[in-house]
Each structure stands twice: as structure tokens, then as C-alpha cells.
TrEMBL record:
It is found in: Cytoplasm. It holds the Pfam family Lipocalin_7. GO terms for molecular function: lipid binding. Keywords: Cytoplasm, Lipid-binding, Transport. Residues 28-45 form the Cytosolic fatty-acid binding proteins domain. It comes from the Eukaryota. Its main location: cytoplasm. One of its GO terms (cellular component) is cytoplasm. The keyword Repeat does not apply. This is Cytosolic fatty-acid binding proteins domain-containing protein. Belongs to the calycin superfamily. Fatty-acid binding protein (FABP) family. PROSITE patterns: FABP (PS00214).
Amino acid sequence: MSAGLDRWGYKDKQGAVANSTVTMSFSGKYQMESHDNFESFMEAVGLPDELIQEGKDIKSISEIEETGDHFKVTVTTGTKILTNSFTIGQETELESPTGEKVNSVVMREGNKLTAILNGIEYVTELTDANTLINTMTLSGMSYKRTSKRM
């Protein structure tokens, strides 16, 4: 018998769970708990020093609205509010952390959203129902922000 199949050829409960990928909804509010390499990365992408100093100790809040393939993402860091709306797989104008407007396509693979803006790879991943990890990578240097659902 194949693994995960009962004697009649149907998936048993254990096999069904092990072989399925559950896609979770990104919808919700998340508060940053920790971040790694913020100052160095933001300096490398050209964020002004005063904004780096202002933002390094602020616990940003991300709010994500997911409706089918359409997303609205609002990140509030102190008094700065960054909002991007997009549809998976369609080119759209997105605002980068430096304030530039850039055309990009956001793709989804399971619980991971990816996009490239001005050479920076953005990955937003739900690692479990309550943990959101954002990673930005440029020329081998990465910034990682971990947030928890509120």
C-alpha cells in the first residue's frame, strides 16, 4: 500500500493532512515584534538618516486586507503611513519605503507574497496563522521584520 492510503486506496486522515498545503488568509493587523539589520539595510537603499533614526525603535503596524487576489497593505510607522494596493499577477504601481513609485508585479505562492522593486526583493510570508515575516534583500544584504497578529 502507498503511504497515506488506506487498504481501499483512499487517503487516510494522517495522509490527507500530511499531503495538503493550507493557504492562510493574510487579512488582519500585525504589530512588529522584532527586526534585524534595519539601520544598515535602510542606509543601503538610500533612506535618509533622520528617517532611519526615527523608525528604528518604532513598532510598525501592518494592516492587510485580502479579497480574493486583491490586496491592500497599509504599514504605519510612527506618523508615516505607506499604503499599497495590488492584484496578484498584475502589474501595478507600488510605493517603496524610500517613497519612490515603482511598477511591479506581486506574485503569490501559498502563504508567500513576492515582488521586486528597484532591485530589492520583497518577500512577505505567513509562517503560521499569527506570524508575518517581511524580508527585503538587495545585493545579498537583507532586512527582516517579524510581526504578530493583533
